Amino acid sequence: MRKRELERLRKLLEGQREQLVGNAKRALTGDIHLDPDDFPDEMDAASSEISLAFTGRLRERERHLLAKVDQALAKIDAGEYGLCEACGEEIGIKRLEARPVAELCIDCKAEQERLERNIG
User: What is the DSSP string of the chain?
Assistant: First the structure.
């Protein structure tokens, strides 16, 4: 991978990291508790609980993505970024542009998904 491509992907990852950290900070400053006195009927309370649970799932997904972004940035620093963890071949630049945290080349990812479908 060329140095210019690597730097462009680093900036992409750093931008994604900033966005995820910003989302987390906004979530921490927000009011996420439920007070039963705030909801006059059960439907309002249930709706709010569902919304809170959905927000929690989104935050968990963002936390996992942030860990992958940090891992990808560490790989760039170590000179290991862009190599498939399964076969060791280079991951295509188009794939990395679409998903900078990709750990598998497109062929290995397709095989992994095929195996998961067969098992599940």
Answer: --HHHHHHHHHHHHHHHHHHHHHHHHHHHS-----GGG-SSHHHHHHHHHHHHHHHHHHHHHHHHHHHHHHHHHHHHHT-TTB-TTT-PBPPHHHHHH-TT--S-HHHHHHHHHHHHHH-
Looking at domain 1-81, its CATH class is mainly alpha
**In whole angstroms, how far apart are CA 94 and each of 67, 79, 106, 113, 117?**
22, 19, 10, 19, 25
79-110 tens-digit pLDDT: 999 999 999 999 999 999 999 999 999 999 99
CATH 1.20.120.910 in the chain, residues?
A: 1-81
Rounded CA-CA distance 67/110 in Å is 23
In the predicted structure, residue 72 carries a pLDDT above the cut 60? yes
